Amino acid sequence: MSLKSFKPYTKSTRGTVLVDRSDLWKGKPFKRLTSVNNSSKGRNNLGRITSRNHGGGHKQKYRLVDFYRRKFDSVGEIERIEYDPNRSCHIMLVKFEDNERFYYLAPQKIKVGDKIKNGSKNEIKIGNCMPLQDIPVGIDIHNVELQPGAGGKIARSAGTSVSISGVDGNYSLIKMTSGEVRKIDSRCMATIGVLSNPDQKNIKIGKAGRSRWLGIRPHTRGVVKNPVDHPHGGGEGKSAGGRHPVSPTGQSAKGLKTRDNKRTDKFIIRRRKRKKK
Predict the structure, then answer these.
(1) Reduced to 3 states, what is the DSSP secondary structure of residue 55?
(2) Whole-model pTM?
(3) Do 3 and 20 meet the contact criterion of CB atoms below 8 Å apart?
(4) For residue 209, is it within any domain?
(5) Cβ atoms within 10 A of the Cβ of 140, count?
(6) Same domain for 70 and 183
(7) Residue span of the structural domain in which 240 resides
(8) Which of 18, 220, 244, 249 stands the most exposed, by the fewest C-beta atoms within 10 Å?
């Protein structure tokens, strides 16, 4: 994949940078692996806004991606690589020997026609899925389970991967991109390779309209609101808020640690790196 820029015919095309998707499948998704994707528009089950500035956007179908990879002892062939509007990385349609098809997350350097397998004692090859205990130290992996059989939870977005840094008894030590080192049961499944579409982070939207297509609504800064509407509001003329930055509900917004899960603290060997100020 590569990036494409545009000649400045208009003010929006002057700064627009998008990912070139010319190599991807140009037809519709595989119908039996899709479902209705009703947008929540930032509302919860009571209809109340819980995530501000969401709504609208283009209509989408949800692709039923298999994060479990439980189709063992069968060889699958990659039929096509597709764009998925519901995630940042690309997905691939895999056809197995019994004509059953699944959508999987597509890693980099994988091509249409390649063969992949799920299960233990497989070849260390991009796209193959196997337990952590069968993967050598230092190999890049993605779609990693946190509990055996629970489906991949870690490293699922574009261009991401984690690596195995060691073994501790029945656990594998996984080094995250944040720098955190964590113990995960060695029976958990993971897929070899780095996920596709690494240029996703370099996209420049270019215009407000494209944000609306993505379901992102305009955002009003807190400092231009009234005191009744936001903790940063009020003041004479332009003011910077005059206090520590917080959310509309008063939650500190810059650097406050909110993790409170003592049940899983024992699995974290080294905390994530702190950002340099």
Answers:
(1) coil
(2) 0.90
(3) yes
(4) no
(5) 20
(6) yes
(7) 223-277
(8) 249
